[in-house]
Amino acid sequence: MRQWQTFRRELWGFALLSVLHVSAAIAAGDTPIVIGTRTTLTSKVLGEQRPLMIHLPEGYEAAPTERYPVLYVLDAETHFLHVAGMVEFLARTQHLPEMIIIGVPNTDRTRDLTPPFSKAERVDDGRLLSEAAPTAGHADTFLRFFTEELAPYVEAHYRTQPYRILVGHSHGGLFAMHALTHKPESFNAYVAISPSLHWNSAELVRTAPGALTRLAGPGRALYLHEDAEEAPNVANLRTLTRELRKRKPANLTWRYDELPGQDDHASIPHIGTYEGLRFVFNGWKIPEKLQMTGDVARMEEHYAQLSKRVGYPVVPQERLFNGVGYRHLEGKRLPQAISAFERNITFHPDSGNAHDSLADALEAAGRLQEALTHRERAITLAREHQDPDLPHYQKHADDLRARIAAQPAP
Q1: What is the pLDDT of residue 24?
Q2: Predicted pLDDT at 271
Q3: CA dihedral (394, 396, 402, 404) positive or negative
Q4: What is the pLDDT of residue 26?
């Protein structure tokens, strides 16, 4: 039926103004657009209730067998909204997989995101760091919250792939670097944007190259991002990355990008996350030329290579093979169209749209009874999954039944 899925996402606001807008929209009879939900998790490790923000991929409910990588976003009260929109966009344009996004807002940012430090460490005004930030230095406890409580909770309640990405900015980037160097198995990929590498007299600048050289397989990915005017952090990152280039860590794929002074510390998280995710999933999108050829076998080989790289079975997005099938159908290449749609059902057996699309090709080929079987399957699946396209599937099936009934008797 569809070459591309329609937007079905509802947008939620976490500020009072957004709530008022949504209330006004409901009062006017409109439908709010929501991008996620809030929940809380009781943490025994931290001894508190932790708020969470959760974004599920478009079509999550309508595809009950699909599984997704999980993107964990620190400082979620600031970054959840723009990251969720970005991921939806990049997934829609096939540059990334669809992902579950878990936003982790702060309760005590300095406590949770900063690693342990020397008792003699001082801040710029001469005070001891322990006096200036008395709760600081508990990143290891916060990392335990992630690995012992949050990730297991997410993986028990949502359909996840065994692939975790952590995105952090400033102190969040510091936390990401600390996790990678001290417990690298916590995440598969780390995006550290303007990480606070000055912490504890720039300890990580000295220790990270050795720790990253000693990483055991499977490999991890690290993306570092900074603005050229962020001195002295630029100097720290240049020192760190210069050492990484010398050592060439065997089990780390990494890149450092430095903006030419056009942004600032507050604005770079958006572009840093964008570039970081594109780096982590480099090569995810099938080239347009290959898509246009409709060569299903070569496309499947592309996904087989991706599967080896990320360590879990990657299946083509439904819209990809659907688009290939319709290009063949429009070109009157019916066997190729049917083959593409059939492969799509192999990958997405519970998609009403995939069955309805195959029925389009079968009907065009005159295989009406087979087409009707898939029309009816689309209706059944749409009912099970509360698919809003159910009326369209029903109309297609009714029209096909009428066509079959109008055929002359043999």
Answers
A1: 53
A2: 95
A3: negative
A4: 60
Give the torsion through C-alpha atoms of 138, 143, 144, 148, to 10 deg. Answer: 160
326, 3 Cβ separation under 8 angstroms: yes
CB–CB of 96/284 below 8 Å? yes
Peptide bond just before 218 cis, omega within 30 deg: yes
Average pLDDT along the chain, 410 residues, taken 10 residues at a time = 41 39 60 92 98 94 88 98 96 94 98 97 94 97 98 98 97 98 98 97 97 93 92 92 97 94 88 97 92 88 93 89 93 95 94 96 97 97 90 97 89
Contacts with 395 (C-beta within 8 Å, 6 or more apart), sequence order: none
Residues 228 and 260 sit within 8 Å (Cβ to Cβ):
yes
C-alpha distances (whole Å) from 209 to each of 115, 236, 363 are 17, 12, 61
Which pairs from 161-164 meet CB under 8 Å and 24+ separation? 161/67, 161/68, 161/69, 161/70, 161/312, 162/311, 162/312, 163/69, 163/70, 163/188, 163/189, 163/310, 163/311, 163/312, 164/69, 164/70, 164/72, 164/188, 164/189
The pLDDT assigned to 25 comes to 53
Q: What's the Rg (C-alpha) of the chain?
A: 25
Distances in Å between the Cα of 152 and the Cα atoms of 164, 332, 367 are: 12, 49, 48
Question: How far, in Å, CA of 203 to CA of 287, rounded?
Answer: 42
Question: What structural domains and CATH numbers belong to the chain?
Answer: 35-280 (3.40.50.1820), 288-405 (1.25.40.10)
* CB 150 within 8 Å of CB 102: yes
Tokens representing 301 are 């080989």
**Distance separating alpha carbons of residues 43 and 145, to the nearest angstrom:** 7
Indicate the residue type of 405: A
pTM score: 0.88
Q: Identify the pLDDT of residue 15.
A: 38
- Residues in the chain, overall count: 410
